[in-house]
Amino acid sequence: MNGVLLYIIRALHCMGAVLSSDRKKKVDLGIVVASTMALFCSFSVNCEAREFFVAGAGPFAAAGANSSAKLADTASAKAATSVQPKSDTYQTGVALYNARRYREAEQYFTKVVKQEPANSDAFYYLATCQALLGDKPACLRLYKYIVQYFPNTPAATSAAQYLAQNSPVDTALPGGGDSQKQFKDALDTMQKMVKKASTAPASIVSIVQVVRARADRPNVSTEAVSAIKQAVDKLPPAVKDVLWANSVKIFVTPTVEDYEPGVKYQEARGYEGGTYKSCPAFYQNRKIVIAERTMDEGDETIKDAFPANQMVNSLYHETGHALDFCLDDISHSDGFKHAYLLDSAHVEPSVANTLRYYLQKSEDGQEECCAELIGLLLGQSERHTAEMRATFPLTLKFLRAKLGI
Ligand SMILES: [Zn+2]
Predict the structure, then answer these.
(1) Rounded distance from Cα 295 to ligand 1 centre (Å)
(2) Domain residue limits at 395
């Protein structure tokens, strides 16, 4: 449900800048929020229904305000209208924020909210830093806190606008009662409208684009193109809807260099020093790229073409990344992380080496495992599928339920 709504919301806003696009910079700011929240245990709390909507504006009125630039502008503008006391720590935080040094700014605002628990602007800045640093869940939690405990402030108004755009409907919203019902009704209506407009047509092969060879090398074979197109049209309707609604494009290319000359010098993740030259497929910002051939890392000799079924397997894996990204970072959700950590704590030593790409430390392993398991659910074969099924049963179960496939 969350995922469907989120993609609808994103479709509504033309999928502008996405906060999580810089996921590598994500830090566990949940700890910061949790400790901040703990400070307020002794607060006397007014739990009356709050005015959730901005006067004269609907929940989607602030379309596009979730882009980084607008978030930054909004934070500055809201703070400027406030009459709250401004300590030196706060002012330093603002200066760092305006200099786009969000990591340092976030540390300052964390201090400020402890020292000045009534400073709603500091909370707003802190939450916005979290969003800009890629931790959207922490930001959402803090925005809800602001709406609940600092009603009728510029910070609460902005936070409410952002929440109206970015909260799944089944997340508890502050205010409850009428405002929550009003929010749900509005979202239901929008959902129906958008569903009508964004349901993918029976065939979505138009999202597949064939890249021409730049250098003197073979173009993509017609066999590979038709295998990819057939596989795309055989994807479950719900998956096709997500790809369609999010304008995901699939590029089938002779080599990655033909798609984008620059990428061959970029190090591919998990390739232990290797570059995209030897990477058969990747996903980047709503673009799935599948190469028919790779290049030698040293002399750039073009290797033999992959069989079409192997390219289709790559398509499934990269579609997994696309769904992860379009459905609000499934691989970074608490449910996914929980299942993944439990599964990866019990890896058979005999398969640990085979599956090391999906067990990488940091968030890479999580994301790769998520993409591979979704690929498996979409029909991937002949690719350590048995080992993946045996190693990640809980994660697979979680994804099956999440995607409804
Ligand atoms: Zn991958």
Answers:
(1) 18
(2) 330-403
